[in-house]
Amino acid sequence: MVGIDIIKIDRFRGFRREEYGFWRNVFTHDEWGGAFASAFPARRLAGVFACKEAVMKAVGSSYLGRFDKISVNSDTSGKPFVRLSDDDVEVSVSISHEKEYAVAFAIKIN
Known about the structure:
The protein is α+β, with helices and mostly antiparallel strands. The chain has 3 helices and 5 strands; from the N terminus they run βαααββββ. Helix 2 packs antiparallel against helix 3. The longest helix is centred in the middle third of the chain and has 19 residues, at about 40-60. The N and C termini lie close together (about 10 Å). Keywords: Magnesium, Metal-binding, Transferase.
């Protein structure tokens, strides 16, 4: 299965670091902190959000609407990867940004 999502980056402009308590059901602490440690937090949050949506579409079933079951990370080279609460599911992801949009693509491997 595959999943793709695109989102307007402007939806995340104006988010502030201290608002994490409100968004903790959508973003992990590390995702939130990583976004605000970057030069472009809105862009980073939009990419993570799009990635989670793409993963939900690729995996389906118990992951639909469950942002808390998906963690978006990146390796030392910056390549994104996800961790799911169900370790038996493997997903490969890609995130890209353009001036106004973030897009993510996910493929369920097994």
